[in-house]
Structure prediction request, 323 residues.
Amino acid sequence: MDALSRLLSLHPVRAALDIRCRFGQPWNLPHAALPAGVAPYHFILEGRAQLQLATGAALPLEAGDLVVLTRGAAHDLFIAPAAEAIGARLGVTAAPVRLHVNDDAVSGAQALSDFLCGQFHFDAPHSNALVQALPEVLLVRGALLPEGDGLRTLATLLRSECGGADGRGELRAGAQAVVAGLAAALFGLALRAWLAQGGPQPGLLALLAHPGLQPAMQAMLEAPQQDWTLPRLAALCHLSRATFVRRFQAVGNTTPGEVLQQLRMARAAQLLSYSKLPTAQIGEAVGYQSEAAFNRVFKKFSGMGPGAYRRTGRQAPPQGISG
Prediction:
């Protein structure tokens, strides 16, 4: 398994596609702030839009662009300022995907905006580490995606399932289930495209994307329980210890030891949620011979002991995790 796949398996993301909108101009959609761990997204299928946060200049969006508000910030998505818009207003909800068409505004003579709105949910407490590695506004530019890119293909499939090309068709049999499955792939494809477009800021994902440091990250992700000393990690990257530490700090704004502990605790949280292994055995599985030491580090990491975490986070095991 590649490093990005392993990282995403440690930080599962639940996706929902709530609504498809087709508007003629002008229009304005305000979105209230969402709780921590909920990230709204907008996928522009046709036309254009602008995204405005509480501060800063508006961000122009074109067809094919995907934008994710990773901290759930309040924002407006619009063509015209609210005072000039025709009053299209939509609150983000958890309802099944539906079509929202402004019939008065859509006409052949007017430019059309066609877009999807949904949410990514970072349910696991330890997934905050992944969220913090992302910018507040994660933007993938559709124009920079290569032909045949998975995100382009997914946009076509979602558009078809959510009413067809014109957005006015009936949802086909099984569309809700199909849309849910497609939305689940959206975050991984978006993250991969963002990394390819040079997105990472200093942090976990920047380390993952750095060619010279990938061997060390891959090793820690594959076997976090091992005793990964600085000389071992530096040797994997064909660097001296001093150069490895300096480069790791510059790219990740953290140390190899801190990353290793983060990966160990994420794996432990996963096992506590999905498996029936005893706490001591889970501690050993992530590199701790002392159950007391594991309990102490895990509580510092998650804010609660392993037992309490297991009681609050018990879930059905995903494929590949047993115990």
